[in-house]
Please model this.
Amino acid sequence: MVIFTLPVDAQVSPGDLAKPHAHLEGMSNCTKCHNIGGQVRNQECLTCHTEITKLQNEKRGYHNSNEAAKKNCFDCHSDHHGRNFRIINFNEKNFDHYKTGFVLTGKHSKINCADCHKSEFIRDDKTKKRVGTFMGLRSICIDCHQDEHQSTLGNKCESCHSSENFKPASKFNHDRAKYVLSGSHLKVECIKCHPVEMKNGKKYQKFKDLSFSNCNSCHKDIHKGRFGNQCENCHVTDSFHSIKNLEKFDHGKTTYPLIGKHVSVKCIDCHKGGLNVKPKYEKCVSCHLDYHNGEFIKNDSQTDCSVCHDVSGFNFTSFSIERHSKTKFNLTGSHLAIPCITCHKKNTKWEFRLDGNACVNCHQNFHGNSITLKNYKGNNCEACHTSEKWNAVTFEHKLTGFELLGVHKKQDCSKCHSNKNENTNKIISFTAKSDCIICHKDVHAGQFIKNGIADCQRCHHFDNWKPDRFDHIKTSFQLEGAHLKQPCYKCHKTIVDEKGNYIKYKLGEVKCAVCHS
Amino acid sequence: MSKTLHRIFIFFLILIGAATFFFFAIYGYSYYLTSSEERFFHELHKFLKPSGSIGHGLGIIGSLMMILGVSSYMIRKRVRRFVRLGFLKYWLEIHIFLCSVGPILVLYHTTFKFGGIVAVSFWSMIAVVISGVIGRFIYIQIPRSIQGQEYSLDELKSLNQDYTNRLKAEFGLDDVLITKLEHFNKIEIHKKTNFFSISGLILKDHYINKNLIGEIKKELISRKIKSGNIKKIVKLCNSKLILSRRIILLHSVHTIFRYWHIIHLPFAIIMLIIMLVHVGVTVIFGYKWIF
Model:
């Protein structure tokens, strides 16, 4: 009787349905799970459990595993065992998550089931309401993890990230990106190209929609657009210093077009720090050695080479005579005609800063110490010479105390001032002595030398050698009478002795018998 | 069938019943003691569950045994054509065996879960079994011939007198002792049809008889009668005392036995009907065991 007092629904049922199925209690619901003649078929289960159907159709989840797919639903999920029966008898500790198709690796293998299997991570509203369910999670990382990329990179996080650590994205291969890294790009930190930006009020690192159509998207165009946007025409990714297609490079587009000798110079000769290193070129010495060793530094400022040279070569100079005239040493006379090298390359090296303007800096002082004139102090050649001609001496000989008179005026200086030394070299010498025999041969064999001085002018003058000034009266033997009519050689015979061949004028004691026999 | 062979036969029937009971009790001990919520996860569930390969078989076999036991006994008992087919006593023993072991198997088939309409069948079965046990007790209170035919009161009295004569003639019991054995003669024929009253009376009589036998045994020993004869005398005394009691209770037992049929049979029918419903539902839902 007690049995019959039970609800009619319970009379056929072999036991209470578990809580999840409690709403199916009642005879009218039997066939919702039980098939007439077919026990409990999967299709009845799946009619309600569409989430399983969906998983199986999508071939994912544990119910698609080899273990589960071969079984009938009721092999694992029975019922009629009471309200508290666990339809899902799930052993969290022993469950092999591999069977779900989502292998737990890395950090996933160390966390608790509930860390992932919680309603906030379940997308399906129906499944979300199930308490303690392990269903409903997709194997999409962003279902559980925050999408740091803010939906810009899709949802296949696993293609870049491993379960060990989100950072770094160890599985990321930039080769799969639209922009393949090469050269130095491989060594650059990601953030250099992928900046952190703000999106939806949150920081995120931009990995997509970056412009890389040309290098200027990331790199500063130090050429300021002069060479266009096709940097790769000249540059390679290994280094900006590595330049390709040099032969095609148009240096004319730079701020320093190459002309003259520069055209044939190797790039590296100027771009010593690398082809992308912009050399200083404000002054030539920026590249070129100062051949002149600072000769043209004025007020600590280097005079640029272009003042004298141009790119046609250093051997040529635009330094003209006119400009030389503006220097402290105005070129005049013969200096206009002589090549620069004569004065400025006395040795192996050109020198333009000469020590003063003294002639002896260039010219040999033939005179040595032989000139003792007062106005010749300091080897001032200009006292006698001009630049017109070396021989055109404007010297006033009388300043020496020996005024040139007569034939002396017509004589070349060297007639008197030239001599030969022991080596038979011609030397020009000037002495303070003005005795005639210094220059002229004493044909009288020293007969008139008195106190070492011949003093020819006692008899001779400068017009010729005629002894016009000789007056026999002034001798110790005055000519008188027939003596006046007699030629000189009658008395003054030519003598040949050890002193040479000469006419003897000094006859000593004058005795008639000496001449007259 | 000789008495010994019959005993062996009975022994085997009891042995089979006991073995069946204990085998499944031991085999399914842990499963049956597991709560219903946890049984599904038990390793024997797939075998011992009501629809399992063993459990389902137990239900089917147990049911068939009961059907066979009931039907065969009823046919033998009620269909005239089969009246002479074996002793009714043996059929009853087979009936008892099948309708004892069958419920045991069904009990294990239920896995001790009793709910729903099928529980009506189960409890009806239990009622039938219990009533069967009671019926058996009542049944044996009515003396029968070896073929199962009831003795009349006169026949019983005559039989009782035979016991008296044998005690006197064979073993030389005097009237003093015989008088002690005739104590029921002082009691009038029991009129009450209350089962519990009769049971109480039987128990009381059993106690009295036990004391009486004890006294007789002492007396026989004091008279230095051989121990072998004492046993025979005591056995005859016992038979006489029991027969005397049954004679006294014959009317009442007959009355109760009629009532008993009223209980025993309807429960059996209820059990059978609901069982058929149960079987029908399971077959409809596709649970066909090995078929």
Remarks:
- The mean pLDDT of chain A is 82.
- The beta strands of chain A are 34-35, 39-40, 196-199, 202-205, 297-298, 301-302, 418-420, 426-428, 494-497, 500-503.
- The CA atoms of residues 329 and 357 of chain A lie 6 Å apart.
- Chain A has 15 helices and ten strands.
